[in-house]
Amino acid sequence: MVLLVSSGSVQAADATQHSRQFFVITFEKGAAWVDDRRYEHQPGIDAHLEYWKVLYYQEILLMIGPLQDQSGGIFIVRASDESAVDAIVERDPAVIGPDESFRLERLDPDSPINLRNN
Predict the structure, then answer these.
(1) Do 101 and 27 form a contact (C-beta atoms < 8 A)?
(2) pLDDT in tens, 21-62
(3) Among positive and negative, which fits the CA dihedral 59, 62, 67, 72?
(4) Residue 99 and residue 82: Cα distance in Å, rounded?
(5) Would you say 99 and 31 are in contact if contact means Cβ atoms under 8 Å apart?
(6) d(CA 12, CA 59)
(7) CATH architecture of the domain covering 3-109
(8) Sheet of 72-78: strands edge to edge?
(9) How far is CA 47 from CA 27, 79, 93, in A?
(10) Spatial contact of 106 and 82, defined as CB atoms under 8 Å apart
């Protein structure tokens, strides 16, 4: 998937956003994280969440949520491949700056426990 970024918006350049590949992104505390603040009071949170809201409306981001211990958050996205997810994450304002680090994992949609296949 090619993403076009201009004027603070993200646009999908092709139809691969409806791929069957799903990825879990775990954002972890970065250098700018302030330990005595909840996630909604962290520096840069507004730009971070606004970026992901656009991806949600494009049906790229499926689910988002902070970890209960406030150590980061989980994002579930749909993309054509891992490099497409890397490109999405690298454009996140929280990742562009020193705010956060992340870990990426691919979900297996063909797993026997997938409810769609049963």
Answers:
(1) yes
(2) 899 999 887 777 788 888 788 888 899 899 999 999 999 999
(3) negative
(4) 22
(5) yes
(6) 10
(7) 2-Layer Sandwich (3.30)
(8) 61-66, 72-78, 22-29, 100-107
(9) 15, 22, 6
(10) yes
* Domain layout of the chain by residue ranges: 3-109
Helix (H, G, I), strand (E, B) or coil at 67: coil
Closest CA to 33 of 42, 46, 25: 42
Amino acid at 32: A
- Contacts of 67 by beta carbon, 8 Å cutoff, 6+ apart: 73, 74
- With CA atoms as reference, report the closest residue to 2 among 87, 92, 104: 87
Query: Residue 42 and residue 30: Cα distance in Å, rounded?
Result: 11
Contact present, 54 and 98 (Cβ < 8 Å): no
Q: pTM for the full model?
A: 0.70
